[in-house]
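Per-residue structure
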Amino acid sequence: MGLMNPVSEVAMAQESKAKGFQTFTLHFENDVFFGTDYLYTNGVKLCWTSPDLENDLDDSRLGKWTYSLIGRLPFTNKPGLQRSVSLSIGQNMYTPEDTEQNKLIENDRPYAGLTYVSAGLHGKSNLQMNTWEVLLGIVGPHSYAGDTQPFIDG
C-alpha cells in the first residue's frame, strides 16, 4: 500500500470540509463601476447555495427528491458531478438612453424594473458548473425599482 503525499492529504481534507459549507453571495452591478452596459443600469442579488448534496439524504431538509431531480436533468446528471441547490432574491433596473424625457420615446428602452426570486439546481465539477434556474418575478411599478433607483443613485 503506497503512502499519500501530505499535501494531497491536506487538500483532500480541505475539499471534504468545503463541501459541507453553505454559501451566501451578494452580487452588486452598476454602471458606476465600468461605464454603461447598454441600458442595464443596476442589479443586486442575494443568493444562498446549499452544501454539496449527498446521495443519502435521509436527514436532509431538502429531501431525496431534490438530489434525484437534479440527477435526471440534462447537463446536471453526469456521473461524478457534485449537486447543490440555490435560492436567490434580486432586483434589476433598466433605463433609457434619454433620461431627461418623461414620455415614452419610440426606439428607446423604457424605464423598467424586475424584482424576483429564483431557485437553481446545480451539477458541478472542478472544471465546470451546469445550472438549471427558475426565476419568478414582477415587472413594472410593483417591482419597486422606481423607489430603489434614487437610493442607488445616491
